[in-house]
Structure formats: structure tokens, C-alpha cells
Amino acid sequence: MPLYREWSSDPYSLAAIWKIEEPESFFLERTGMGELDIKNDKRRMERLAGRFLLKHLKEDFPILNIRPDEHDKPRIDDNQYYFSISHSWPYVAAVVSPYVECGIDIQVWHPKMEKLQNKFLSPEEQAFFRNDSKLITLAWSAKEAVYKWQGRRGIEFIDHLPVTGVEENGSDIDINIYCQLTGEKMKVKAKGTLEADFSLSYVVHSEIFHPF
To answer: What is the pLDDT of residues 9-57, one digit of tens each?
Structure first.
């Protein structure tokens, strides 16, 4: 089983990373989803693997009930669980919680990431990441995770999700983001890590709170 990692991402949430090495039939059998109308083989596998990972984390997760809300944020009935899924071939990451909104993002390394940073980092923010392509990728992951967590359309990463601080604690990197489009503007912490093949970031909670 290529379970890359499983852990408690905060006191209220469980997370995992899976590396896809199995045939499609492996995920079909374990999710009961049936054939998906997605022509691209990798995208179809990512969708199946993400649902499989949710059930790995919570056996009773009703993956067949996932529907987008009015902002296209995936949800299940009555928010029995909050969750977030991310994929960057061949990796899939997921986080699940019965208590708090979730946001996670995984990105395999992109060799030209430093050339793209002006699209999502202000000059002040770029100073935090020192023109390092891996740290810049992590910055993108952190903003993407917070975007998924807050779950509303209309986000501009530079304008609405500014990075206000970066703290390196060994292999963990905490990225503080001041979320502008929540009901009340708030600071959100995204915890990140740099792995051999990818960056990963996810929103962490020290207490139960929600974007709205």
C-alpha cells in the first residue's frame, strides 16, 4: 500500500497522502463509484484516489454524497464531515474533520515556479521566500489551502490572501495568512512541509472556528 503519510493535522482533523501506483480497478472496487465520465486517465485516477483516501481516513465517509455548494466547494449532507482533497500526480492528499472547515494542497515541483510568483505574491511577500522555487511552491500551496478552507469565490491571491509571516521550525514551515474575505478578517495559519517530490500545506486550528 503506497500510503505515504497519515497524521493528525491538528487536534480536530486527520490527514493523509497517497502515492498512486495501483490500477484503476483498485480504487473502483474500494469506492463503489463505478466508471467516471472523465476522459483523461490521470484526472480520473486522481478523482477516484481522492475519494478512496477520504474513506481511508473515515470509514463511514459518504463519498457518493459529495456535491458542490453554491461556491463550488465540495460538501456532504449536513456537513457530517468537513474535508478537502488535493492532487498533483502521482500524489493525492486529503484532510477530514467533523468539527472544522478544511483546506489542503499538494504540488509536485515545477521548475519554473519562480517565474510565476508575480502572479500570486506581492514584492513584500516574495521577500519571505527568497526566490527559492521550492519555497515559492510552498507559498502557492499555502494560499491554495486557505482558499479551499474559506470556500468562497472571488479570491485574488495577492489582494485577499497576503502572507504576513513565515516561521521555520525544523522540517515544518508555518505560513501566516491574513484572510480578507471571511465574515470577519482573520489570521489563518497554514502549516507546510517540503518533501523530496512535492510541497504540502494545510490549514491548522488551535480551536474550533469557521470562516463565517
So the answer is: 999 999 999 999 999 999 999 998 877 778 888 999 999 999 999 999 9
The CATH code for residues 3-102 is 3.90.470.20
Cell of 56: 481511508
- Nearest CA to 62 out of 40, 42, 32 is that of 32
Alpha-carbon distance 59 to 173, whole Å?
A: 30
User: Is-contact 35 43, C-beta < 8 A?
Assistant: no
Model's pTM, two decimal places? 0.95
For the chain, where are the alpha helices, taking DSSP H only?
Answer: 24-31, 41-57, 113-116, 123-129, 133-150, 157-160
The answer to whether domain 3-102 and domain 109-204 are alike in fold is yes
At the topology level, CATH places domain 109-204 in Ribosomal Protein L22; Chain A (3.90.470)
Where exactly are the structural domains of the chain? 3-102, 109-204
Distances (CA, A) of 95 to 125, 132, 168, 184, 187: 27, 27, 22, 24, 20
